[in-house]
């Protein structure tokens, strides 16, 4: 596994901006992917799910009627 850091970034999102700032403040210069301009393809999404230990994107969603 590579030590390179990649962030899927939305500059209009405060959490995304905060994350990018935190990385840079700690000396990490990540590869920034502006996902709204260049969305990941299905294969990339599957790879990201696998890296997160998930099988389905449904695992990212809160249960019906519930919250995360």
TrEMBL record:
SUPFAM superfamilies (alphabetical): Thioredoxin-like
Gene3D superfamilies: Glutaredoxin (3.40.30.10)
Domain of life: Bacteria
UniProt cross-references to InterPro entries, sorted A to Z: Arsenate_reductase-like, Thioredoxin-like_sf
PANTHER family: ARSENATE REDUCTASE
Family according to the record: Belongs to the ArsC family.
Protein name (Swiss-Prot/TrEMBL): Arsenate reductase
Natural source organism: Raoultella terrigena (Klebsiella terrigena)
Taxonomic lineage: Bacteria, Pseudomonadati, Pseudomonadota, Gammaproteobacteria, Enterobacterales
Gene name of the encoded protein: yfgD
């Amino acid at each position: 596994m590579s030590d390179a850091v990649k962030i899927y970034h939305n500059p209009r999102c405060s959490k995304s901006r905060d994350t990018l700032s935190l990385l840079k403040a700690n000396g990490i210069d990540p590869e920034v992917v502006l996902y709204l301009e260049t969305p990941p393809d299905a294969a990339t999404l599957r790879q990201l799910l696998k890296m997160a230990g998930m099988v389905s994107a449904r695992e990212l969603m809160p249960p019906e009627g519930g919250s995360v």
